[in-house]
Amino acid sequence: MRIALGSDHRGWPLKERLRELLAREGHEIVDVGTGSAESTDYPVYGLAVAGKVASGEVDRGIVVCATGIGMSIAANKVDGVRAALCHTVDEARMSRRHNDANVLALSEKRLNDPALDELVHTWLETPFEGGRHQRRLDRIRQYEQGR
Question: Known catalytic residue: 65?
């Protein structure tokens, strides 16, 4: 799977761990930055990841900041992006199963290392159920398109 990664300075250490984890699992990584702990603005990276997902350049995106809130807000401004802030494996599973989330937002402050592997793996491997959930996503898409 081709996955875009992005973080601000606070999420950078977690993004680096994610890059290693995903590469070990054989995923192709598109890292949009940041590349250090020097202060940056999260919208730059959240929007960059979301843009790559929306354009189809990547299959999915993962964004990280201190809380994950700012990144999820920024990513969700891009039409066709469904960013979900997940703190647990169950939230990750449901974000895919019911909402077909295509961007995962993570909190550097709240996510501990033991949970990281399982949460990310679950999010990447869980399929979208469709059905009644598709109808709800279609309503959102209609709103995005101004209908």
Answer: yes
Among 9, 27, 65, 86, the one annotated catalytic: 65
Asked if residue 78 lies in contact with residue 52, where contact means CB atoms within 8 angstroms, the answer is no
- Does residue 147 carry a pLDDT above 70? no
Pick the catalytic residue from 9, 27, 86, 98.
Answer: 98
- CATH number, residue 21: 3.40.1400.10
Catalytic (active site) residue 98: yes
Give the neighbor-by-neighbor strand order of the sheet with 2-7.
Answer: 28-31, 2-7, 60-65, 103-107, 83-85
The number of domains in the chain is: 1
The number of CA neighbours under 13 Å toward the Cβ of 26 is 0
For the stretch 59-115, pLDDT in tens is 999 999 999 999 999 999 999 999 999 999 999 999 999 999 999 999 998 876 678
